[in-house]
Amino acid sequence: MADENPPHDTPMPDAVSDANKIRAKRLAKLGGPPPASTPSNPPSTSSTDPAASSSVPQAAPKQSPPAAQPTTASNPFSQLGMKASEKPASAPRINIKPKPAEPSPARSATPKSQEVSLEAWTDRTISQIFRITLDPGRTKDAHGHRLCFVSGVRSDLEESGSPLRLTPELLDSAIIESAQSKTEGKALDYLLGCWKRICRLLRGMHNREDPKFAVAQETRRLCFNYCIFAATMPEVMFNEEPHAENPLADHLLVDPENDRGICHDFLNEAVSRFEDDDSVKDLLVEAVEELSRRLSKMTMNDDYRPYMLAMRNFVRYQPLLVAMAQSDFFLPAEIEAPHIERISLLGPFFTISPLQGEVAVNYFSSHSTRDKGYIQNSQRSLRLALQTHQDELFDIANCFIKTKESREKILDWFALIINTNHKRRALSADPKLTASDAFMMNITVILDRLCEPFMDATFSKVDRIDINYFRRSPRVDIKDETKINADQNESDAFYETNVGGTNNFITEAFFLTAASHHYGLEAASARLSELSKEIKYLDKQLAQMETERHKYISNPMNLAVFDAQVKKMKDRISKGHCAIYATQGVLLDETLQARSMQFMRYVIVWILRLVSPSTKFPQGTLELPLPAEQPEAWKCLPEYLLEDIGDNFKYITRWMPHIITSTQCEELMVYCVTFLRNSEYIRNPGLKSSLVRILFNGIFEVPGRPKGVLGDALFAHKFATQHLLHALMKFFAECERDYQKLPIRYEIFQVIKCIWPNPAYRENLATEAQVNLDFFVQFVNLLLNDVTYVLDESFTAFTQIHDLTIELRDPQPEEDANARQEKEDKLAGAKDKAKNYMMITNETVAMLKLFTETLSDSFTKKEVVVRLAHMLDYNLALLVGPQKSKLKVENMQEYGWNPKAMLADIADVYLNLQEKQTFIDAVATDERSYRPEYWETAKNILTRFALKSPEQLAEWDKLGEAIKKTKEEVEAEDADLGEIPDEYLDPLLATLMEDPVILPRSRQTVDRSTLRGMLLSDAIDPFNRTPLTIDEVIPNDELRQEIQAWKAARLAEKKAERAAAVSGAEASAMDESQ
User: Fold this and answer.
1) Which of 129, 321, 394, 737 has its CA 20 to 30 A from that of 28?
2) Are residues 880 and 801 in the same domain?
3) Domain match, 811 and 924 both
């Protein structure tokens, strides 16, 4: 008998037959018509079962295949993909059997004890888990939980003569009867609580060979089956109304540890059944879709955290994550931009933000009564909440990215968002036609973070960004985007050729992120600027409206309409201020901006390697100028790659310059200098000027950096000292036809002032001026144009202010109110004009002073020196001549106007050129403005106010004497020449020609120096306006020789006459003396 199996391992056939009969009988009842519905009780929120509270947590064991079920007319298990005839070999079977007559002598006591213990344990465990009982007198368990008396199960056991004990074979009947009793609410609420209890029990069972473990596993399997039944077919199984929406959605929002919540064990079990049962997968995906729909109606003001927690739990399960990515709602077809954030599966999760209108109003309403500290604290708290939310969004997105089967789907989703929101950067874009700032900002932040793994400090992976991305079926659509240096036809032709291969993830992420910055972060910043301007305008309108209220006092109806309009405008202004504060709060996130700056740094390095691949910047140094032949791929890139660099840096330097590192500054400086030096690489003038603006914004003084964030790099970096000044002067000339040339040149002047103290710049400039004289002469000519223009505009404005102020102070008796109002308007306009121009005037004159000191040869070339001298003489006459009183206005400092400082600067220009005879000749021949007495008056002012040192005043006297002497000589020569023949006169300036040339197309003859001066400003024939260069003119040597001969003859004739006159006078004197 020693080798016999223990009695409890050999099931009794009669007992097994009885249990199966009972089970089949109960399941057969399900084949009839659905029972009438009954109202459900409130769900129970039972506490954790103390019997299992001490169990050690561990992963739920893998479930065995389901046990075989008896065949019925309508088998509910077929929903789970199970055939009624299947009988898994490993399914545990607990049999009800009578006591054996003669147990084995060798093992008689132990098997009996085990059998009793196992059956009692099974009965007790099932009772505790499902809170059911076969004893009508037992209403509560040992922990005080209410028990449901399953009378039907007891009756079946009594009819079959089986022991009154609960077994897994009876669970089908017991579960249905208990759930239909509604003792713990709806069936799903009840069964989820049972599921929690059985899972806790299993986590505490470590011996998988123990028969109790098999009982618990079978109990767990059945419990899950009925949870699915309760969720999918409650009307069939539990006499409940069909669900109007997915029933798991509510349970996903509950804490997973709560009895009504969906725990990880449940999700693990569900995921394990995906391959065999699509209904489980569909149920969970539909639950997430339902959560997404609910969240789409919520804001950050609402309790959105449970939704985020549910989604974060779901994406931890790869099969479930893949199933979500395959949902029709994940990437809806033919969806419009504003609907993506509401309808797509992930959209509502990415929309939660302080930028939602309701949130902004909630935090920043009554802005006029809030102090600055309150607003800043509100912004800070919202930033912290948003940072936490964005961390969770990144966690979700990263799970999709890391899973191969879902990566392509989420990249397609990002691309859909970007490609449908191009209108966000349109002029006066309609917010109703695009996605919200809240949604797009979150998208940008998440894409930035997805790029972080490959954006290392050494740029080791930057070369993996494939330039052929846009020629290989790209996700990002740039067809309608303006290209860096190609028109539409050129770019279309370039992109028609498809390049083989596939795009790697780094390339996809890089270009998606670059586009999201343009349509997300930078678009939000641009909208903030537009909104600020709009609210400022509305504030003025409101103030104007409120002054007109008295007009409607007498008419109550009109007054009511007026008050309604005022209230409407106040509400609009209030909402606008709320939106401004909320947007500022989000944009002032230093972490966000630091990530953005880091990405722009990668864009810069990638761009510089593209145009100069051999240097491997930043490890190598770029060589300028760049190759004349530009890469076609570069020319056809979207220009927003460059635009966003400037916009991003502009915002950061204004609000948080301290986050910019010195390395980033150097890379940014190299980028700006490179494309200013090779401006032909960029087509858009505005894009070129943004490079100057980057440098200009970078030299603003900030705490700890008196030269600004870029000042040190611009001042001393070797690359800058070699190329910066030439690049700035080149663009100074290039922007001549830009309608904003004066503001651009003002910014250029500021940068030059920052670097000018470094002698290396001046030395390089002087050296280059010797070998590239024409370039510098052109620069000088344009600088003179600006000086002449801004001085004239400024002084004209001051004259108007002076005259109008006197007229308004002493009005005429017959002057009416309208005439006075007109004068006041003119005065206000003149003041604004003076303020705007004086800022540019001061800087332009300062630049003239700096450059005449270093480039005196360029300023004294024949083609420019006359204009320079006459301009200086004219303005000197205005400052010290009889009209100087008209430049005196009240509150001169308000306009930045200091006549003495202006006189000192102009005097410096004179002194810088005092050694150049061509300059002295040009001043002396200025018959319109030069007066020796003005020279003396200027000296007296310079002396009286100590504007110049004694040495400089001595030089001023010396220069004045040289000019006076030259003037006398010139006047004497002019007198000797007398009437000049018309054919010898320059037709443009009416002066005697020295080097006449014939224009090739108009065949007119002009002096070469006159033509050179004109071509510097406009390269056309002045007579027929056809294109013309100085190289095309034909020297008129015959006429030149004729003029020289005539001049020599006239001067000789006059000289002889004077000699004869002197001789005659001497002879007469001798005669008289005799």
Assistant:
1) 129
2) yes
3) yes
| Same domain, residue pair 1001 and 875 | no
pLDDT reported for residue 1073: 66
Phi, psi at 140, each rounded to 5°: -140, 150
Residue 1035 domain boundaries: 996-1072
pLDDT at 184: 85
pLDDT in tens, 526-564: 999 999 999 999 999 999 898 888 888 899 999 999 999
The pLDDT of residue 296: 96
Rounded Cα distance, 215 and 266, in Å: 18
**Domain count for the chain:** 2
The dihedrals phi and psi of 50, each to the nearest 5 degrees, come to -60, -25
- Note whether residue 878 is domain-resident: yes
940 and 1033 housed in the same domain = no
Give the model's pLDDT for residue 66. 38
Are both 915 and 807 inside the same structural domain? yes
Residues 1012 and 943 in one domain: no
* Positions in the chain short of pLDDT 70: 1-116, 1066, 1069-1074
228 touches 157 (CB < 8 A): no
Q: Count CB-CB contacts under 10 A for residue 286.
A: 18
**Residue 1055, domain CATH:** 3.30.40.10
Same-domain check for residues 1038 and 907: no
> By the 8 A CB rule, do 251 and 261 touch?
yes
Q: Rounded to whole angstroms, what are the CA distances from 952 to 457, 845, 872, 908?
A: 54, 19, 18, 9
Which helix (H) or strand (E) segment holds residue 996: the answer is strand 996-998
Residue 850, CA distances (Å) to 627, 749, 757, 908, 916 in order: 32, 10, 11, 9, 17
Q: Specify if 144 maps to a domain.
A: no
Which of 922, 827, 939, 918 shows the shortest CA–CA distance to 867? 922
**What is the tens place of the pLDDT at every residue in 62-78?**
343 333 333 333 344 44
**What is the model's pLDDT at position 192?**
95
Give the torsion through C-alpha atoms of 910, 911, 915, 917, to 10 deg: 20
